[in-house]
Amino acid sequence: MTYAMILQNKVIDVLPNQETEPWWPPDPAGNPVTAVLCDDTVKKGMEYEPETGEFSEYIPPEPEPEPIPEPTQLDRIEAAISQSNTYLSQTYSEIENRIIDNYTMSLVENNII
């Protein structure tokens, strides 16, 4: 006879060619290990439904999607500083261009170029 060793409704081992029902001690947490008659289709890792006596393949649950983290106060401050720096560099370039334009215009007005 073949026995499936069941711990918390999971097959933890399959023992073929047993003349008597095997006995295993409980796990370290005190959960009992039960021997259940089965056929050769039962494999380690399968689930056991004690109310119906049926074995089924273990289907892992779908992984939870990782939550999108909320920006922290530091993230918001860094974004604001970065945006300010971009604005300041654009403003600096505009001021620089106006100075160059004014200088060029004064050269033209004074017939220097």
Strand content: 15-25%
Q: How many domains?
A: 2
The average pLDDT is 90
**Low-confidence parts lasting 5 or more residues at pLDDT below 50?**
none
Question: What general form does the structure show?
Answer: rod-shaped
The whole-angstrom Rg is: 38 Å
Count of beta strands: 5
What is the first-to-last residue Cα distance?
108 Å
Structural class: alpha+beta
Strand arrangement, major sheet:
2-1-3
Q: What sequence of helices (H) and strands (E) makes up the elements?
A: EEEEEH
- Largest pleated sheet: 3 strands, antiparallel
Q: State the share of residues found in helices, binned by percent.
A: 25-40%
Count of alpha and pi helical runs: 1
Core attributes:
single chain, 113 residues, alpha+beta, 2 domains, two-stranded antiparallel sheet, rod-shaped
How are the secondary structure elements laid out?
Blueprint: E1 2-7, E2 10-15, E3 33-38, E4 47-49, E5 54-56, H1 73-109
Antiparallel strand pairs: 1-2, 1-3, 4-5
What this model shows, in words?
It is a single chain. Helices cover 33% and strands 21% of the residues. It is α+β, with helices and mostly antiparallel strands and 113 residues long. The protein folds into two domains: 2-56, no CATH class; 69-113. The chain has a three-stranded antiparallel beta sheet, with no helix packed on it. It has a two-stranded antiparallel sheet with strand order 4-5. A hairpin with a 2-residue loop joins β1 and β2. The longest helix has 37 residues, at 73-109. The N and C termini lie far apart (108 Å). The model has no long low-confidence stretch (mean pLDDT 90).
